[in-house]
Amino acid sequence: MQLIQNVPVSRVFPWSNGKARNTMQLHRSFIESENESRINWDSTTQVLVVNTDTPNQWGEYRGYRVMPNSGTAHLTVLNSSTLMNAARWAEYDVQVTRQKDTEPSSAHPYNSQDVNDPPVNFERFFDDRESLMQEDLVLWLNLGMHHVPHTGDLPNTVFTTAHSGITFMPSNYFDIDQTRRTVNMVRIEYSSDNTTAVETFGQSEATCSFEAKPVNLWDYRGDVVVKKFPFQPDSPSSLFEEK
Predict the structure, then answer these.
(1) SUPFAM superfamilies, from UniProt (predicted)?
(2) What is the DSSP letter of 84?
């Protein structure tokens, strides 16, 4: 795991006539073991999974950048009195462990039955503090958002912004921009704001047909109920007590 951070610096350049210039530079570091692999998103830091054994032709490590897409939020509650040890996986945005067949999931369906000593306590995954350098890794990524109800949620919560996501983006993985190899690439040449040539590289103009049909609202089959935690299995009404 590599971290690339933008940091502010004040330095003198050969061309700055001895005067310091306030600017920024990249600080590169590695998360080497599990005892430092639980972190939160930082707006100035890139998180990458790289292979240091196979740099590209320019000496950069090939890998993938992991970055929040939208809607992610930090967990506000610290040491939850309700969850106790049942959901230690929720305490950080990004958590990295060495891959083990004995650690297939961060929790267990019965974790809620004994929150003090659950079947799976995610925090114990980091007790051995194993090395992460050039190993098969597992990334545990938390997605979420804070929902403060407002009048626009009545009678139904608006879900246009209730989403969260993660993006995996190649970083120095390829030697060139992969759009240069797409089958639908075009090149437009222009001069004095006028197009002078269009190269379609042998493509034919795309055509398709479609049949538009109205949605049959009578096919609707009802809502999906999402259980809240904690709830009482023997009391279905408890599902809605906190709404």
Answers:
(1) Amine oxidase catalytic domain
(2) T
3-state secondary structure of 213: coil
Contact in structure between 3 and 30 (CB atoms under 8 Å): yes
Whether the pTM exceeds 0.85: the reply is no
Spell out the alpha helix ranges (H) of 112-173.
none
Q: Under DSSP, is residue 236 helix (H, G, I), strand (E, B) or coil? A: helix
Question: In 38-49, which positions are buried (b, 16+ CB within 10 angstroms) versus exposed (e)?
Answer: bbebeeebbbbb
The torsion defined by the Cα of 96, 100, 101 and 107, in degrees rounded to 10, comes to -40
CATH code assigned to 2-205? 2.70.98.20
Q: How far apart are CA 196 and CA 86, in angstroms?
A: 65
Q: Is pLDDT above 80 for 236?
A: no
pLDDT of residue 224: 66
The amino acid sitting at 34 is E
Structure-token match 């809605």, residue found: 240
3-state secondary structure of 198: strand
Which residues pair with residue 152 across a beta bridge?
none
End-to-end CA distance of the chain: 40
- Contact between 131 and 1 under an 8 Å Cβ cutoff? The reply is no
Q: How far is CA 4 from the centre of its chain?
A: 16
Where do the domains of the chain lie? 2-205
For the stretch 125-149, pLDDT in tens is: 998 889 999 999 999 999 887 778 8
